Amino acid sequence: MSKFAKMALVLSAATAMPMAVGAPAAHAAGLISIIVNDPANPYWMAEGNIAASEAKKLGYTANVGAHKGDTNVESNLIDTAITNHSVAIILDPANASGSIGAVRKAVSAHIPVFLVNAEINQSGLAKAQLVSNNAQGAALGAQEWIKRVGEKGNYAELLGSPSDNNAATRSNGYETVLTQYPDLHKVASQVANWDRTQGHDKMQSMLQAHPNIVGLISGNDEMALGAIAALKETGKLASIKVGGFDGSPDAVSAIKAGELQYTVLQPVAIFSKKAVDQADAFLKNGKTGASAEKQLYDCVIIDRDNVSHYTAPFTLSD
Known about the structure:
Rossmann fold; carbohydrate binding; signal; Periplasmic binding protein/LacI transcriptional regulator; SBP_2_dom; Peripla_BP_I; alpha/beta; 2 domains; elongated
């Protein structure tokens, strides 16, 4: 099976409303509470919807809440999950260090926690941590960026939230590859917190200081799309090439339009489903079925050559 086929997972839930609550059923095996970051971002919306769909397929009720990166909101959502007698929690943590207390609180209430997308800086609390292989994905993205931008010139970078380990992992992965090219120089970098509007504004700021950059590499698609909007406003999109990370529907549209060079597809459709499957296994027999707590899922490139294989949000097929 090819790497594209492995990533094919067409779930109608990925296009459902993100905050839907599962309808109770007489045979329901209990409530699984799913907590994501911000469903305004299509990546996190798909994450929550896919997990909820899988929970319902397995006979559970499910609800989806969002902390929007706020650890206080996250803590309150964990409290609600405990009060509602959740049998398991699927959590995309708000903060690598700041979410440890919330996870510990759930574990103390004898509710197993399964982390998706982002990790916490402590092992042994969550039953599983299922995340994209961000180092592999970043290296893949940087290699693709070189193909599109070339091996010399000044460039800029947009980084995600510093509280999310994924931001540093991706940036370090880019750095490992791009520093191998002595005629490439990173002249600007800005934190845009995974946000499209901030990506737009930070791109404007970097352009004012460095109008002659040849490319931008971004930690996610939302920031990249914001940067593209800024480049279009200044008439520089033709001369400054942009690469993204996530595999969002809007990024795919931008690739088709010739505005985004590529995106690194995160297999969120796979690990969101797997987290629920492992929760189900643990609830039934005390084991997740995985060989380790931390599980990495490799990313793939979507570009103009294979974009036609994009079949549903965050999925590729042969």
